[in-house]
Amino acid sequence: MDINDLGSIGEVIAALATVGTLLYLASQIRQSSEIAKAQFGLGLTQRIYDRYLRSTQDPQLAEFLSKDWADPANMSETDKWRLMTFFTTLFVDLFDVYDKVESGLVDRKHLDLRVHLMQLGIFKTPAGQRSWGFWKLHKDQEFITWFEHNILQTDSPVKKLRDENPEDSSSTGKNFFRD
Known about the structure:
The protein has helices at about 5-55, 60-65, 75-100, 110-120, 125-135, 140-150, 160-165. The protein is elongated and about 95 Å long. The protein has one domain. The longest helix is centred in the first third of the chain and has 55 residues, at about 5-55. It is mainly alpha-helical. Helices cover about 70% and strands about 0% of the residues.
């Protein structure tokens, strides 16, 4: 075996080592992507949990959330402002999750949860329609079509509950079933 043969063997070993290194790096990238996706998902879930927890700990927020938003007569000017701010919070959260799902950064279940909550009817109220009218100006046609189909044109899942439990929806000024 001469020096050329040893050089050829060395090149084969180097090529195999390069392939092995590339396979290892590919698995590391895939694992990092999965970890990032899980972290995004955890952060999105945490937002919802924080909102729920805050509503149980803050009596004023709980009172505000339980108002009948469809009837402006039940709301003070401060409540109307709080409602628009609340809608903005929901929209910004939805936009963020929608974009992350479209980019493949989080699972669709995070978007589905938000869609389900928004289908309860809050954006079918006059204030919700005004808020959507504002935000609609700032979104692309693909999102507008998606939102209007999935949120505004879909029957509320609460309608069935209301029809089955009319005594629970008869309380005026309280928003037990949003629709």
